[in-house]
């Protein structure tokens, strides 16, 4: 449980980030708690939408996938794919979806979003495809600048995710990036989102709670 001072500093950091996004033509929203984040996210996803998602603990932690998994939405459940060919079909469906929900591996204080990916399905859907992208990012993912965000993605997020997904990579054992070329690497593609050019496409909910890795 964070003390009040820690929460206050987190709140200032998150609100500054929300302002920074507006300069990048990305809509930013502040959420004090994960319950607030869930309400804000649902407000950005009209009923009847087809919704795709990338691998993310944050989405589960705020309960967003569970809240969308009903007849009011068309949630594209990629984990139901039985083989690689069906998975590819799901990814293509997600590419054509109305809304894509995701977190990020890190974000700089001035609003540059960093994501790394093994297959590239997540970073490609962030770049283009779904008509709207909704990010949910916990305060723990905020890094001082772009270099620190890239460092965080490779030395905090990736090793924990490799361990969580039982990937055979050196970082799983060492806890930090060894710049591997393992077939199991989740660091094939790096996406640095500097700004948005398609009006109203990108939305980021910044949450003053630790979420995901
Ligand atoms: S490049 Fe390899 S060692 Fe480095 S974080 Fe990615 S998977 Fe781990």
Indicate the topology:
Elements (H helix, E strand, L loop, with lengths): L3 H19 L4 E5 L2 H10 L6 E4 L3 H5 L2 H5 L5 E2 L8 H12 L3 E4 L3 E3 L4 E5 L3 H7 L4 E7 L3 E2 L2 H19 L5 H5 L14 E5 L8 E6 L6
Parallel strand pairs: 1-10, 2-3, 2-4, 4-7, 5-8, 7-10
Antiparallel strand pairs: 5-6, 6-9
The structure holds iron/sulfur cluster (SF4).
Iron/sulfur cluster binds next to helix 7 and helix 8.
Q: Can you describe what's shown?
A:
The protein has a six-stranded parallel sheet with strand order 1-10-7-4-2-3, sandwiched between helices. A four-stranded mixed sheet has the order 8-5-6-9, with helices on both faces. It is of the alpha/beta class and 213 residues long. It is globular. The chain contains eight helices and ten strands. The protein has a single domain, classed as Rossmann fold (3-Layer(aba) Sandwich).
